[in-house]
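Hi there,

I know you've been waiting on this one. I reran it after we fixed the sequence typo, so this is the corrected version. Both the input and the resulting structure follow.
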Amino acid sequence: MLILANLLICALFVGWLINRYDLYDKEPWYMLLLAVILGTAFMHLSLDPQVWSITILYPHLSFAQSLALVAATHEELAKLLAVILIATIFRGVFKDPMDGLIYGSMVGIGAAIDESFGLLSELEGPLPPSEVVRIFGHAIFGGITGFGIGLYVIGHHRRHAFLALTLSASMLLHYLWDLATVELVEPSQTASFSCCMIMLCGLAIYGRLICVAQYHSRKRFNPDHHHRLFGWPISLVLKPPRSPSP
């Protein structure tokens, strides 16, 4: 029970942090909660297909590779379907790329809750630090995936390419992360360095997408507002796109 309480508190904190990036058109709290619930449900529904797929791949790949490949593809597809469901049913709420990123991240948090609870339900005591990283990781992967749906909703002229690119990026990062964490069962400097680099790469992509999403939101909802999303020194690296000259 303590594990679940700690898990939900961490998930709530991560969700609060991410929702702060939505500066111009805040999502209703019940929609964010729905996204978390859908993420939990879709993650749970993906478990049996994951087991079946691992049994098919395992003779051809190592167990670690099979596990990482199946988890990355099945779980990111589950998140994608959850975001598509929200975008389709609640079209009046799902308006731009920032919505895709926010809802994708919330779906990712729900997926992390289901995965962590399944792994830790028998444990007692405080939440292991690795589970906090899991929540952040799934939120980042889900946000990258959801961003592509947001571009699709606004009819971006390269929406098909960007949707394929964001989904592929989230799957690749997820695959590499899972593969690296399996190696951490026997700790080594190489495995630890790999995990750090993968997470930094994911954060950089996520941060850049936040800047792009904010640009589209500002253009749609408040063109005259120029609030800076990130402060110094992050703003030196993550800059919003420049508006085209009139």
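Quick highlight: The chain has a mean pLDDT of 86.

Best,
R. S.
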